[in-house]
Fold this sequence. Notes:
Blueprint: H1 9-26, H2 30-36, H3 41-49, H4 68-80, H5 88-102, H6 105-117, E1 122-125, E2 141-145, E3 148-159, E4 166-173, E5 183-188, E6 194-199, E7 210-221, E8 225-226, H7 232-268, E9 270-271, E10 274-275, H8 280-308, H9 314-338, H10 349-357, H11 367-375
Parallel strand pairs: 1-4, 2-4
Antiparallel strand pairs: 2-3, 3-7, 4-5, 5-8, 6-7, 9-10
Amino acid sequence: MTMRKVFRDDHEMFRDQVRRFVETEIVPHHAQWERDGIVPKSLWLRAGEEGLLCVTAPEEYGGAGGDFGHSAVLIEELARVNATAVGFTTHSDIAVPYLVNYGTDDQKTRWLPRLIGGELIAVIAMSEPQIGSDLRGMKTKAMRDGDQYILSGQKTFITNGINSGLAIVAAKVEGQANPKDITLFCVEDGTPGFEKGKKLEKIGLRGQDTSELFFSDVRVPVENMLGEESGGFACLMTELAKERLVIGIRAAASLESMLDKTVAYTKDRVVFGKPLFEFQNTRFKLADVKARTQMLRVFIDDCLQKLLDGELTPETAAMAKLTSAELHGQLLDELLQLHGGYGYMSEYDVGRAWVDARVARIYAGTSEIMKEIIARTL
């Protein structure tokens, strides 16, 4: 691949640290976590000790004070080994930034040190059983009662749901002038009326604990409201652009890794008396995957640089998410085919990566929603 200019020397030094952690603490145990359907909290504590969680969080709260380039390094190193069970990114780069960017000093002091240390795992609770990508159609309600809000509703498809200790919940406050306005609330595990459903069984990402969350007349102190009342939708839209780029970063790194592994496999695999790689069809397929992966890499790195410069627009993030999610599935399918029957075996990385990649066209906004966002700019 081409020389990448988006990463500085400190990013690459961090990559060395992350790669050592991934190889020693994650790779040997990942298959068991997939069988268990959950990652033990002890890994989160180890990651916290190593400074691998919430790397962009401010130093005054125990964070590393890094930028999203450091986050991208972690995303890539997890994608390189298809460690999809490990939900660090959802915690560090999707959920916690809401607290960093919109929380009060008291909220940050109360929760950030434990989130950075891995003692507390955060989730963002947006999706509901009946609304999909239509966030303004959510049914979860909050009613003001003195110095508290009474929260009621149900959320689903919550990554890290079982392990979660702090949920950032999107709800509609009753009595607002605009009934579609959304407000964010921080709800701690153990709060009366807050219950977690059973772990959801998925066709992919099997090691990643995903669950439903239930809120039955949960009393949330006013000081647990995140940001302004009715200001939640703007917060969600701001953070979603980064979430969509995360999917692009993961896809590009995954494709590069799986391409390398497939080249090695086809050179070792003998068919009709010669290595599979020597057949023109094989080389042409691999050449096509390499060319399209390279184009994706250049685009994603450009988007990453734009994010670091504060210039990534929602439309460009939608293009990154759409393109990467679609290419990820298409090209992994080609690579799996070159493995023949072994590609369908779960012991081979390409088969697991192929299954895990399918959800990229659905979560963080479906491909159809991405097309709608892009179409508005035409």
